[in-house]
Design goal:
With about 625 residues, the chain is α+β, with helices and mostly antiparallel strands. It has 5 domains: about 10-130, PAS domain (Beta-Lactamase, 2-Layer Sandwich), CATH 3.30.450; about 135-320, GAF domain (Beta-Lactamase, 2-Layer Sandwich); about 325-415, Beta-Lactamase (2-Layer Sandwich); about 420-480, no CATH class; about 495-625, Histidine kinase-like ATPase, C-terminal domain (Heat Shock Protein 90), CATH 3.30.565. About 45% of the residues lie in helices and about 25% in strands. The protein is built from 20 helices and 22 strands. Strands 2-1-5-4-3 form a 5-stranded antiparallel sheet. The longest helix is centred in the C-terminal third of the chain and has 44 residues, at about 420-460. The chain starts with a helix and ends in a 5-residue tail after the last strand. Mean pLDDT is about 80; it is low at about 1-5 and about 245-250.
Length: about 625
């Protein structure tokens, strides 16, 4: 059995020892610890309390905790809960806003237990206060942004979105007033859209704000204010001690309202879009509330949410305008093929179709549904469609997935091909006629050049002077080289270009037959297509080079060997004429022939490059480039 002394409870020495142990533990904890007496006056505090509140032990001992720590913004519901628990001599747990010695605010969680004597009577309380400011700030920010984001999903207008933003802000931290302003294209001032205050006592601020206009600027001056600075600089603007700095001009009413509402800090944040500032969000609050220094960052996050909504809203409005005024019929079709919406052109073409199935308007519509189910992106089909009068027409259908519509939706664009096919047929006929006409022109030019060549040939046959006769033959060959270009174009599908490799083979073969039938001609040509405007001068140069090679490129034994190369370049083409004769010889005293003069003139005309190779024999290369060789 226990002794009588043991049954009577702990001795005063035991209590003193327990208090000493408790004090030792309390001094080492980072939390604030408060011990009160039976009258709930502070009896002892630890170092953690001093660090958290800024009060010394001497400044608080003998005072009530609520008198020292709580203020006008401390939650009255939490205060009533703690008071009721103390009256009932029960432990309690609460979260409340406290004030430090310098007026700064912070959130704490209080866990309090009553202390009892040997008889079980309450002798006071031991309370442990944990600083939860950071957690409350983070939770409040997440709650605000999540709530605004969820509400914006179902919002239909910018005004409604602005109302969601301001109502959410005034329920957060110590934001006492919030407003949203929008930028109007072509207007010199911001337009007030929505505002809210956290208490009916602050309506003076809202009235003074909603009736103001703000110009765009970069300095806090009359007529600009925080919203105007945020607009002008496209950056957040913040002012503390607002009522002391805004006493001038038309803003004195706002300053008076700010003093009445306890608004000391005003901050404005721009809402940015692709083309600049879309809107401005402004708030007013105190500068002592915990986390007040983070309010601009929070406001920027809210501005991003609001900006995303504005951009999406504008895109949606633009889409609606484009949808209704598209020259093509547009049908919104769900996964089952039901037409859920149609634009003006579709209703004109098909009649009212919303609520009908796609296959009632498009033949083989069931096949389209299979393709839609496969989610093929932006596929183009051709089908027969039925007009409102029952007639059918060829239609081009483009199927695209509609993004951001919730349930799977597809936009089917229907373009009537009737007029386009008529125009294409008319264009094909016109093109065929023009091709025939141009080919006939080339044929006639070729015939005229051949007649001219024949006349010169007849004239040469009647001339006895060998020099004159040679000159006439050279002229005849030049004309033939031009006629050959038109002959190729006459039978060519592309009337703007010819195959220079094929042309070179025909020209060089004709020249050998005319000038040196016994000569050996080697052709090494690769496919080269050149424009007609380059074909004639290039052909004349080739004619002169090959003619000179056959005339003057014989070997000492009298035999003649001529090689012609044609090859494409990355940015043009080149051809080379080589022989195994005695070479060009020294230029001194040599008379420049008409052929050489013609070659040099045509090289300049083509802005080409003439390269003379080293012997033995003669080798001349002509390079023609798209940029003129520069």
């Amino acid at each position: 059995m226990k002794s009588a002394d043991a049954a009577s409870g702990p001795t005063p020495q035991d209590v003193a020892r327990q208090l000493e142990l408790l004090a030792a533990v309390a001094r080492r904890t980072g939390n604030a610890v408060i011990v009160t007496d039976s009258q709930q006056r502070i009896e002892w505090v630890n170092d953690g309390f001093v660090r958290l509140t800024g009060y010394s032990s001497d400044e608080v001992v003998g005072r009530f905790p609520s008198e020292v720590l709580q203020g006008p913004d401390s939650d009255p519901v939490a205060r009533a809960h703690m008071a009721a628990a103390i009256r009932a001599q029960q432990p309690f747990d609460a979260e409340i806003l406290n004030y430090g010695k310098d007026g700064h605010q912070y959130w704490v969680r209080i866990e309090a237990e009553p202390t009892r004597d040997a008889a079980g009577s309450v002798t006071g309380y031991i309370a442990v206060e944990t600083d939860i400011t950071e957690r409350r700030i983070t939770a409040s920010r997440e709650r605000l942004t999540r709530g605004i984001g969820e509400q914006l999903l179902s919002c239909e207008s910018i005004e409604g979105a602005a109302r969601i933003v301001v109502d959410g802000l005034v329920r957060t931290y110590d934001i006492r007033a919030a407003s949203v302003w929008t930028v109007q294209p072509g207007r010199p001032v911001l337009r007030f859209v929505a505002g809210a205050v956290s208490s009916p006592d602050y309506t003076d601020w809202l009235e003074a704000t909603s009736t103001r206009t703000f110009a765009r600027g970069t300095d806090w001056v009359v007529g600009v204010g925080a919203p105007g600075v945020a607009w002008g600089t496209a950056a957040p603007c913040r002012k503390t001690d607002f009522w002391e700095q805004d006493q001038h001009g038309q803003y004195s009413r706002r300053a008076q309202a700010a003093r009445k509402a306890g608004i000391r800090t005003v901050c404005a944040v721009p809402v940015l879009g692709p083309d600049g500032v879309l809107a401005v969000i402004e708030f007013g609050g105190s500068h002592a509330y915990p986390g007040h220094e983070r309010l601009p960052a929070l406001l920027e996050q809210v501005a991003q949410q609001f900006g995303a909504f504005v951009a999406q809203h504008q895109s949606r409005r633009a889409f609606e305008v484009l949808f209704q005024h598209s020259p093509d019929a547009l049908l919104v079709v769900d996964a089952s093929g039901l037409i859920t919406a149609a634009n003006t052109r579709a209703n004109t073409l098909f009649g009212p179709v919303a609520g009908l199935n796609l296959w009632e308007q498009i033949e083989e519509g069931l096949g389209l549904l299979t393709l839609l189910a496969e989610d093929a992106p932006d596929v183009v089909y051709e089908r027969l469609a039925r007009r409102v009068d029952g007639s059918t027409f060829g239609a081009e259908l483009t199927v695209s997935r509609a993004v951001g519509t919730g349930a799977p939706q597809n936009i089917v664009s229907v373009r009537d091909l009737t007029e386009r096919r008529r125009a294409e047929e008319a264009l094909r006929r016109s093109l065929a006629e023009k091709v025939t006409l141009v080919q006939e022109v080339h044929h006639r030019v070729k015939n005229n050049l051949q007649v001219l060549s024949s006349l010169i040939s007849l004239q040469a046959a009647g001339v006895e002077d060998a020099t004159v006769q040679s000159m006439l033959r050279d002229t005849e060959n030049r004309i033939q080289s031009m006629a050959l270009v038109h002959q190729q174009l006459y039978g060519h599908a592309d009337l703007s270009r010819i195959g220079f490799d094929t042309y070179a083979q025909s020209l060089c073969g004709a020249l050998r037959n005319s000038l040196a039938p016994s000569a050996e001609l080697r052709m090494h040509t690769l496919p080269v297509e050149i424009p007609i405007e380059r074909a004639v001068p290039a052909g004349l140069i080739l004619n002169e080079l090959v003619t000179n090679a056959f005339k003057y490129g014989s070997r000492p034994d009298g035999s003649c060997y001529v090689r012609v190369d044609v090859e494409p370049l990355e940015d043009g083409f080149a051809f080379t004429v080589s022989d195994q004769g005695k070479g060009l010889g020294a230029p001194e005293g040599r008379k420049v022939s008409m052929g050489t003069t013609l070659i040099l003139a045509l090289v300049r005309q083509l802005r080409a490059r003439r390269i003379v190779g080293e012997g033995p024999g003669t080798s001349i290369r002509i390079e023609v480039r798209e940029d003129g060789g520069r």
